[in-house]
């Protein structure tokens, strides 16, 4: 059974779709089979994946997400789920069936608030799962994104997230002009634009999955 990874936040524009796309390529480069689920009605991820042809994908409605993700996980190593930037049924459903939840967060107070709200969904999902399996766990971590290396505001965000007891990846995704530029061409930034950041994020994500392999 493949692992389902949700990249979610109830906040819009935090870098969810960018991270799903980059993680898909990271995993493919390591030889894994990857399937992406686009549960965002804006269909940004599927637009990108259709443009590059890099990864199989399907657009799903929130109510179909559990069934579809479960089904494709039987034939792929990883299923990556992109969700709308809102507190949504899709977000809750995706978290419920995930082996890992990554919560992208810019260094901004509103993003931190929504990271907390999203993390509460993970806590709820763990509570539900433990009714049937007492050791059930869903690892989750915030991932700082669009980090301006010339500023130190990301340290404030890290402190706030820590204060809220939300785990945070050490690795982060820097603010890259090339990612911003690519958005105007309706295509994702090339993998090389992510630099070493995505390799570091991917490695930490895989380590988290391994730690909690049940
Ligand atoms: N690391 C980055 N550096 C520069 N720009 C970025 C970076 N990550 C994302 N962006 C820009 O921010 C925009 C929003 O990113 P993205 O679409 O990945 O966020 P999202 O959380 O999926 O948004 P939504 O909630 O609208 O689906 C992108 O179009 C891109 O231009
Ligand atoms: Mg998106």
From TrEMBL:
Family matches, as CDD domains = ParAB_family (cd02042)
InterPro entries associated with the record: DNA_Partitioning_ATPase, P-loop_NTPase, VirC1
What SUPFAM superfamilies does UniProt report for this protein, alphabetically? P-loop containing nucleoside triphosphate hydrolases
Q: Which UniProt keywords apply?
A: Plasmid
Protein transport: present as a keyword of the record? no
Q: Which residues form a coiled coil?
A: none
Q: Which Pfam families match?
A: VirC1
Q: Which domain of life is it from?
A: Bacteria
**Protein name listed in UniProt:** ParA family protein
